[in-house]
Amino acid sequence: xxxxxxxxxxxxxxxxxxxxxxxxxxxxxxxxxxxxxxxxxxxxxxxxxxxxxxxxxxxxxxxxxxxxxxxxxxxxxxxxxxxxxxxxxxxxxxxxxxxxxxxxxxxxxxxxxxxxxxxxxxxxxxxxxxxxxxxxxxxxxxxxxxxxxxxxxxxxxxxxxxxxxxxxxxxxxxxxxxxxx
Length: 181
Ligand SMILES: [Ca+2]
Ligand SMILES: [Ca+2]
Prior knowledge:
Elements: E1 3-4, E2 26-30, H1 32-35, E3 36-37, E4 45-47, E5 51-55, E6 60-66, H2 68-72, E7 86-91, E8 108-111, E9 113-114, E10 122-129, E11 132-139, E12 161-167, E13 179-180
Parallel strand pairs: 1-4, 6-13
Antiparallel strand pairs: 2-5, 3-4, 6-10, 7-8, 7-11, 9-10, 11-12
């Protein structure tokens, strides 16, 4: 496929501050779905560089593992590739987990994969989180969660376990590799 950048250059849409005497670490977050367009009547695709420059000193991440038994449970509806094994992240400690489309939906979600961050374990990484307290809940029924619908009753998305994690700016969590079990 042919790819062209119509504006001819890359530009950052937001400014940033470099602090004297301090290490600054930046990450380019490129939303491909926002950046690619297929113009009508023209060959190929256009790349509109919709980058977001993220100052990593202001954010943190959560990386942890999920106990094998939760991923192997008979109630799981994940496919052979493991799609449907997902962690849902909520603001605050001990938050009651609910599905996408519900009044208590998560701030973000992330896939759970073998080797995602730790060899041999079912692991997850959630990046670009504001510092603060979070609840990380695991479901193996993510494929049943319609983002536009609040599943209820027999259709309720079941969360098999959850853990609290506090994100520190520029780092990970105060608890090392939170385990959901
Ligand atoms: Ca839903
Ligand atoms: Ca629900």
